[in-house]
Design goal:
The complex is a heterotrimer of chains A (about 170), B (about 425) and C (about 325). With about 170 residues, chain A is mainly alpha-helical. Chain A is about 75% helix and about 0% strand. Chain C has 14 helices and 9 strands. Classes of the chains: A mainly alpha (about 170), B mainly alpha (about 425), C alpha/beta (about 325). Chains in contact: A-B, A-C, B-C. Chain B: It is a multi-pass membrane protein.
């Protein structure tokens, strides 16, 4: 995994997540407009907005792993030295990779199993919706592994309690 | 037994800095893997269904709304208006800080957004004008809790979705407690600065005040759009949230505050907060499914009834539990995990669901200011470049009366129930 | 804040320690007849058979759609789900939610175990492995409004709220109304504010959401006599001995009777209470034939299970 590919992927995830957020907003507004202004609501806006939210959640989950934005509790790490901190953080990333890996595989199987099912209002195959979980967790695996490798190479980069909180608050 | 192992695993993983979402997922996955009757498919189904929800859609919308409000300059106008009216009072910037948070709270659903915005702008200003640094940090941190108590409120949405209550009703429940919080904060500001008559600015003329008020007035529009839409039965909270975003976006355009790059930054910020919150929502859904399958709510009820049959004692015990959990877990995660277990128990004890919601939310919000893991403490520390202990020291004097507000909310049901009852929302 | 709870009341009935226990999950509140009448009826019928059920109410284990997925995957033993949700697995199953498929509860009771319906369950089983063991009466839907609704013409122009599911919209559409989907939680205020003019629900739901306070008429349209299905799979049934299996079948029959009695008497009692307190006028002058004729005419052409719908309507 080259650095350039990695940064590129992160930028794509960020862009896609932003597009999904704007799309979600637009679909809800469309619902408001058709229901209250036109008085003739569309039947599929609510369902589509929910599905966009699922995709937003899981694409952003991958992106947040890459940027180390997931909320965590810096109780122990704040009291450890750099090296011990890097070891603990690497363990945390490996744990994330294992869990996300299992969910990515199960998610793909779940999506494949649901090929016959269609969403009632939009008629979208449920596999498209469930696929978001598989993809999102696969991205988490990729970035979690990237973080772990990075920790081993450059332990001085492991973010401390204050740095990660700053990014959460940003 | 299974339940105890899962909770211990959760705590150990949290301690090892596994992100909250995965600290919830890992023991749940282990449970699913170890039960031969359960396929991993259920794990996927429950995580996905956690976010496949129309009310939850309001969460990213309100996050975006708060960030847009900051970027649009509306927050600065609220601040200017507060200075124009309160500038000449002793300790004025303390009250201004509370007032700005109160004004901003109608557009923001999270304490962290408030603490970050106010910490960046107001804390340096206050220190420059001679206010004690711990005071500046303390009042900013403490007043950031107004945002999630006044509608829109992300904890209220989470609670409503988890407990199956109306989002509109839960929005209204927080208003009186928030007003009490404002009073408590102002009293503390008055007490802390009672000897500092040097800390006051010039009295502003009425024309200047009128102009500042006029400039800040559009902020009221956001509250009207959101609350009016929901309480008037015109729109669902999710729909109102999107209209609110549109309103603030148009406001930002009118103020000529928005460049493309600023807009993109605001969107990215919102995606980042949304991503970290929603993955917790997804994970907590699976964790909650395991808890329900292992009959945690029933066990909690039986245990509680073995301990006490008195409602008052139950409320004290629950507050202690919430306080401990809130000191470690962020409110959203704590609500998603605890509410399905505790809300039915509260009902057994005859506590009104909306009253109980107020207790849980106010208590868990205090956790944002409680060491070891108070997110607001960390956020303030990082945006002001002040050490965390300094922030804690500053928050401490405010804490006392805030706990007083929690006690009022706990033992005087009408504090939380009066307004929803008056509006016909208490069911 | 004061008071004390009665620990006896709060204790739960404990199942026999050696019993084979099956998880039974549904989305209804703990005080809904599904939980208060249906679950005890099953438990009573199973008593002494060495089998029992443990109930998970209030969507604790998931939504109706999710519960069916869990039964299908073997993670859950028994689920309660309505015809529309079964229709996702096998189109014909949704037919039972079709408007005016039954005239009333009596006809529902006579028809629900008929060959046509049994054929649907057989088709569902073949397609998905989901096994419908019995159908419980859920309630009859009626339209509430602020002007009397007696004919399809009276419904025209009224903005009527329905649940957000395509079939409910189609039912109202074929009755001549304009359906607006909305979450149930929001209906009270929407009626109060006049955002919508009318809504339709079974009587117990109208009562528990106090919609009688904000509407003037309950028109006994009876446009949908609804049921929920008790769904399981071979994974559960294969664990039963022959004796246990007959106890289980007995439980299915008696529970259906118990739930129907509970709901019918709840419907009657609520109507009686309204008649007395006058909080809403009961309009019994509805021309149900006019509505039924129109729906039975139009609906089959707009749904994938039109043939089956005709078979059931004509057979009954
Ligand atoms: Na503030
Ligand atoms: Na707020």
């Amino acid at each position: 995994m080259t650095g350039r590919f990695h940064r590129g992927l992160i930028a794509v995830e960020r862009g896609v997540a932003v597009v999904l957020l704007v799309a979600t907003f637009t679909v809800i507004l469309l619902q408001v407009f058709t229901r209250y202004v036109l008085g003739d609501p569309l039947s599929w806006t609510e369902e589509l907005a929910r599905f966009l939210l699922v995709w937003l959640a899981f694409v952003a989950a991958g992106y947040c792993t890459a940027e180390r934005l997931h909320i965590s509790v810096d109780l122990l790490l704040a009291r450890l030295g750099r090296r011990a901190g890097a070891v603990v953080d690497t363990f945390a990333n490996v744990a994330v990779v294992v869990a996300a890996g299992a969910l990515a595989v199960a998610g793909a199987a779940f999506a494949a199993d649901s090929t016959g099912l269609r969403a009632p209002a939009t008629g979208l195959p449920m596999a498209v919706v469930y696929g978001a979980g598989a993809l999102g967790f696969a991205l988490v695996v990729l970035h979690g592994a990237g973080n772990a490798v990075h920790n081993l190479r450059r332990p001085e980069d492991v973010p401390g309690a204050m740095e990660s909180a700053e990014r959460e608050g940003a | 037994m299974t339940l105890a192992v899962m909770v211990v695993a959760l705590l150990v993983l949290l301690l090892l800095r596994v992100p909250v979402a995965f600290a919830l997922l890992i023991p749940s996955l282990a449970y699913v893997a170890l039960d031969p009757g359960v396929g991993l498919g259920v794990a996927v189904q429950q995580t996905l269904s956690g976010v496949n929800s129309f009310p939850i859609l309001a969460v990213p919308m309100f996050i975006l709304l708060g960030n847009l409000a900051n970027a649009s300059g509306i927050t600065d106008r609220v601040y200017d208006a507060a200075v124009a009216f309160l500038g000449h009072i002793r300790g004025s910037l303390g009250y201004v800080n509370v007032a700005t948070s109160f004004g901003f709270s109608w557009m923001s659903g999270a304490a962290i957004a408030d603490a970050a915005a106010m910490g960046r702008v107001q804390v340096p200003q206050m220190i420059k004008r001679g206010y004690p640094t711990p005071f500046a940090l303390g009042v900013t941190g403490a007043s950031s809790l107004i945002a999630p108590m006044i509608p829109p409120s992300i904890p209220a949405i989470m609670y409503a979705v988890t407990a199956g209550l109306s989002v509109g009703a839960l929005f209204v429940v927080g208003i009186v407690p928030a007003a009490l919080l404002v009073v408590a904060l102002c009293l503390t500001v008055w007490w802390l600065l009672r000897h500092r008559s040097d800390l006051r600015g010039e009295r502003t003329s009425w024309p200047v005040r009128a102009k500042a008020l006029l400039a800040a007035l559009p902020a009221v529009g956001a509250a009207v759009v959101i609350l009016g839409g929901i309480l008037g039965g015109v729109a669902t909270p999710t729909e109102a949230s999107a209209v609110g975003v549109l309103y603030v976006f148009l406001l930002a355009l009118a103020y000529r505050q928005l460049t493309w790059s600023k807009l993109y930054r605001t969107l990215v910020q919102s995606v980042e907060t949304t991503g970290s919150v929603l993955l917790i929502v997804a994970s907590a859904a699976l964790f909650g499914w395991v808890l329900a399958r292992e009959r945690a709510p029933q066990l909690a009820a039986e245990t509680m009834i073995d301990l006490t049959t008195y409602t008052v004692v139950f409320l004290i015990l629950v507050n202690v539990l919430l306080f401990v959990v809130g000191a470690v877990l962020e409110p959203t995660a704590a609500i998603l995990i605890l509410v399905p277990v505790l809300a039915p128990v509260a009902e057994t004890f005859g506590v009104h669901p909306l009253h109980f919601a107020a207790i849980v939310i106010v208590n868990l919000l205090l956790g944002l200011l409680t060491p070891p893991v108070g997110l607001v403490l960390f956020v303030l520390s990082s945006v002001t470049k002040q050490p965390v202990p300094a922030v804690i020291k500053g928050v401490l004097p405010f804490y006392l009366l805030m706990v007083g507000v929690l006690l009022l909310v706990t033992f005087v049901p009408s504090v939380s129930l009066w307004l929803p009852t008056a509006l016909g929302l208490a069911g | 804040v004061g008071g004390q709870v009665d620990p006896e009341e709060a204790e739960e009935a404990q199942a026999g320690a050696d019993d084979l226990t099956f998880r039974f999950a549904h989305v209804y509140d703990p005080n809904h007849p599904v939980e208060t009448c249906g679950v005890p009826a099953i438990q009573d019928a199973l008593e002494g058979s060495g089998v029992t059920i443990e109930s998970f109410p209030a969507a604790q284990l998931g939504s109706e759609a999710e519960l069916l997925e869990q039964v299908s995957a073997g993670s859950l033993d028994i689920a309660v789900a309505g015809p529309s949700f079964l229709g996702v697995w096998y189109e014909d199953a949704a037919v039972l939610d079709g408007g005016y498929i039954f005239d009333d509860v009596e006809e529902f009771t006579e028809t629900i175990d008929s060959d046509v319906v049994q054929d649907i369950w057989a088709g569902l089983y073949e397609e998905s492995g989901l096994k419908v063991e019995t159908s419980w009466y859920y309630g009859t839907r009626h339209v509430t409004s602020n002007t009397p609704v007696n004919t399809p013409e009276d419904l025209a122009g009224l903005k009527l709220r329905t649940p957000d599911a395509p079939l409910y919209l189609t039912n109202i559409d074929t009755m001549g109304g304009t359906a607006t989907p909305m979450a149930l939680d929001e209906v009270y205020t929407a009626l109060q504010q006049g955002t919508i003019d009318a809504q339709e629900n079974p009587i117990p739901t109208i009562d528990s959401f106090r919609l009688n306070e904000v509407q003037d008429y309950i028109n006994l349209t009876g446009h949908s006599v609804q049921s929920v299905q008790i769904v399981t799979s071979d994974a559960m049934l294969d664990q039963l001995t022959e004796d246990q299996r007959s106890a289980w079948d007995e439980a299915m029959t008696t529970s259906a009777d118990a739930v129907r009695e509970c709901i019918v008497s709840a419907e009657e009692e609520t109507l009686e209470a309204w008649r007395e307190d006058g909080s809403i006028e009961i309009n019994d002058d509805v021309d149900r034939e006019a509505f039924a004729e129109q729906v039975r005419d139009e609906l089959p052409g707009r749904v994938p299970w039109g043939e089956t719908y005709r078979d059931i309507v004509e057979g009954s």
